Prior knowledge:
Blueprint: H1 2-23, H2 25-28, H3 31-34, E1 46-50, H4 54-66, E2 72-77, H5 80-90, E3 96-99, H6 105-115, E4 117-123, H7 129-137, E5 142-147, H8 151-159, H9 161-168, E6 173-176, H10 179-187, E7 195-197, H11 210-220, E8 226-233, H12 235-251, E9 255-261, H13 267-276, E10 281-283, E11 295-297, H14 304-307, E12 313-316, H15 329-332, E13 338-340, H16 348-356, E14 360-362, H17 366-378, H18 380-397, H19 400-418
Parallel strand pairs: 1-2, 1-4, 2-3, 4-5, 5-6, 6-7, 8-9, 8-12, 9-11, 10-11, 12-13, 13-14
Helix pairs in contact: 4-5, 12-13, 12-17
Amino acid sequence: MLKLYSILYETIGVLIIKFLGIFSKKINAGVKEKFGNYSFKFLNRTIWIHAVSVGEVMLAQTLIDKLKFKNDIVLTTSTPQGQELAKSKLSNKCKMITYFPYDTKKAVDNAIKAINPEIVIIMETEIWPTFSKRMKELAIPLFIVNGRISEKTYKSYKKLNFFFKKVLANYSAILAQTHEDAKRFVEIGAPENRVITSGNIKFDIEKPDDYLRHKYMLLFKTLNKKLAIFGSTHTEENEPLINTYLSLKEKTLNLKLIIAPRHLEKVPYIEKLLKQKEIPYAKRSENPTFDNNDVIILDTTGELAKIYSACDICVICGSFDKTGGHNPLEATVWDKPVISGPNIKNFKKVYKSLSDMDCAFIVKDFCELEEKMLELLEDEDYLEKVKQNCRRAIEKNRGATDFTVNYIEKYLKELYENN
C-alpha cells in the first residue's frame, strides 16, 4: 500500500501540483524548495520544526521559547502566510526558515541533506508516509506535538486504518492535546505505547506586556469608547456582521468596530459593503483613528492577536459559516470575552474548556450575537466577572509546553544512553 501511494504521489500527484501551481500563487510559493532544491546545507545537526501555516507558527513560537536544546533550529511551513509570519516573528530564533518538501523520496532526501536534523517536530498533525518512512530508516526521531484529530478526519482515517498503522509506526511519539485525541490516534493505527496526552500548547500563549495594550488603546483612541472586533471574518459572514454592528450602534452610540478579514484579498469587498451602508471607515495600513471613523478594517498581517488587547468584546468568526471557527485563545489571554457562532468544530475542545469557565459564549445566529454583545457592553460588573474567568481559564490549562519539552528531552537522553 505504501509503495502504491509513493507511485501515485510521485506521478499523478506531482503532475496535479505542477498544473495547479500555474494558476495559484499560494501553491507555487516556495515551489523550488518544495521540490527539494534547497540553497543551503547545515554541517551541524539541527532541530527541524514544521508548522504548516499561521496557527501552527504561533504554536511553534511558544515551543521555541521554551526549548532547552543547543542545536540550531530550522523552521518549515507549507504556506506563504506561514512563511511571512514565521520570518516576522522568528527570524532571530531560527537559523533558517524555509518550505517543507513535497512527499516524494527525492524532495524529502534533499531536505534531509540540507537541514541535517537530529530530531523532527511536527506541530499539530501532518502525516506524510514517505517523509515518516525516511525518518524511520535514517533513525531520526520524529514527533507530533500538540496533536489533534478532528472528528471528520478521524472518520476518514479510521477507514484506512490498515494504511495508517504502517505510517504511524514511523513516529517516535505522538503528544496529543486531549485524551480523546490520543484515543483517536490509537484507533487510526498509532502504537498505543507511543501516544501520550500532553495538554494543549495553545493555552501556554504568552500575553505580552501591558504596554502593548495601552499602545493600541491610545493608537485607536478608545479610552472613552467601547470597541468590538470581528476577528477572522469569512465572505458569507461580513454583511450580516456589519448589520449586527449597525443595530448595536443604535443602542450603544459610542461603539466602534474593527473588522479583520481572514483573507486580505477580501478587503475590497468589505470596503464596498461599508460604502453601501454609508459607514465611515478607514484601513489599518493608513494609520487611522476612530476620530472620524466608525470602523477600521485590519488589512495588515500579524496584528490581530495584539489588537485583541484593545477591545472590549471579541467575536471570533469563521464560526457563522462552514469554516469551523478560529483560535479564541488569542483573545482570552488578554482577558477578553469571546463570542462565536455555532460552528466551532476546529476548536471544539478549546471552547469546551472556556465555556465551562464562563468566558466564551456560543450563539446560534446573528440575533443571539447581538443580544450577547449588548449584554456584555451594558453590564460593566458582568463584563469584569467574565474577564476574571478568562484569567482563571488560562491558568488552569497551562503546562503543555513544559510537558512537551521535558518529554522530548527525556526521550532523547534515554535513546542516546541506550545507544
